[in-house]
Amino acid sequence: MPGIILTVLLLVLPAAESNAGNTVVVRAGSLLDIVNERLLSDQMITIRSGRVQTVGPWSAVAVPSGATVHDWSAWTVLPGLMDMHTHLADSAQSANVLAPLETTAAESVLQGVAHAEKTLRAGFTTVRDVGVWRAFNDVALRDAIDAGIVPGPRMLVAGAYITVPGGAGDITGQAFDVTVPADLRFGVVRSPAEVRERVRTLIQRGATFIKTLATGAVLTTGTHVGAQELSEEELRVAVEEAARYGVYVTAHAHGAEGIKAAVRAGVRSIEHGSLLDDEGIELMRERGTWLVADIYNAEYIDRAGTLEGWPAETLAKNDATAAIQRENFRKAHQAGVRMAYGTDSGVYPHGDNALQFAWMVRFGMTPLEAIRAATLSAAEMLGRDEQLGSIAPGKWADLIAVAGNPLEDITALETVVGVMKGGLIHLDPSLN
């Protein structure tokens, strides 16, 4: 499938974000200045070639001659939201643990097309897609979005999971004599040398970061959430090899020892962090390691899993980690651990990404802190804060519009009425 997408790319016009160089103006009734932590009224945002040119009071200057004007004066305007833990280019989670074996690469990437559009229309203009079962489906989807073939958020992609045999990122639950296709086990490694080779190959084939599975998982049957799977040496090799290419590594890690091993190895972020202990919190704070904790996700797993008959093992592991993950999120926030917004979308329905904001506020963040986690903090974690994360001159014109004031009611972000990505409108509030 990636080869087909790349062939198509040769036939299309330049990427959609070029915006043809025309001047676009957005009139914002209220504008959230995430850098200076203030809400400004009646602002003019001028945009050219997909990037913000100026931001200032509507009454201060005239609208540029010939500009296309979008009147968002009835709405609150924020930077485009960013989800740092998604799974767009895959089938949705279900009771069938072997569903990846029943979907072709073509089918799963086409499902990803629908997932990407739902995510964009929910106001998430940039995502970090943290792994796919079929290797490089995420690369193909990213390239199609960048080329303007299909609508979707800006994607950073991992290509495949780096995992041990039978580990959190492997296919499990099938009969022992069933042969799993190679693209579903592309990142399975058995030694530091194999880690190095897999990391190098993933980057060469289009991955923009590396995803390691340091511990067991809630959703992978046969794995133990608290058990460390990749060794600290293997994690360190992944970090060292990725660094040769200017690429960072993130680690799926629930168990306390796996978390600490990953942090010592130098990963950029810890995903989930459910059983994080006080030593781990202090280590993350000292090293500047980011925490991306999907604290809404357990609510959905419990509700949908019970209704749909998900494996009893999955539901038991979810029950064992949900409350402690949320309490550790609170403790880590209070301790000053850096945090970015990530939801694990794909476990729950794509497009519902904003439901987690209320949970982050419930467990210790202010609404502004939660929004910052999904905007400027996420951009900082990616090392792209000069391009993304706030509405400022020189940055990509990624904007969303909502009703009301999300600083007073964070659930306002659950109903997005306007979306602009790179200066192009994908959801027009005048049509809602």
Q: Which characteristics define this entry?
A:
432 residues; 7-stranded mixed β-sheet; 5-stranded parallel β-sheet; alpha/beta; Urease, subunit C, domain 1; TIM Barrel; disordered N terminus
Notes on the structure:
With 432 residues, this protein is an alpha/beta fold. The chain folds into two domains: 108 residues, Urease, subunit C, domain 1; 302 residues, Metal-dependent hydrolases (TIM Barrel). The protein is 32% helix and 21% strand. The strands form three sheets. The protein has a seven-stranded mixed beta sheet, with no helix packed on it. A five-stranded parallel beta sheet has the order 8-9-10-11-12. A three-stranded parallel beta sheet has the order 5-6-7. The N terminus is likely disordered.
Structure summary, number of beta strands: 15
N-to-C SSE string, H for helix and E for strand: HEEEEEHEHEEHEHEHEHEHHHHHEEE
Mean pLDDT score: 93
Question: Order of strands side by side in the largest beta sheet?
Answer: 3-2-1-4-13-14-15
Assembly status: single chain
State the major sheet. 7 strands, mixed
CATH superfamily of the largest domain: Metal-dependent hydrolases
- Spatial shape: globular
- Radius of gyration equals 21 Å
When the domains are counted, the total is: 2
Q: Determine the fraction of residues in helical runs and give it as a percent range.
A: 25-40%
Number of helices: 12
Name of the level-1 CATH class of the largest domain: Alpha Beta
**CATH structural architecture of the largest domain:** Alpha-Beta Barrel
Poorly predicted runs are 1-20
Strand content: 15-25%
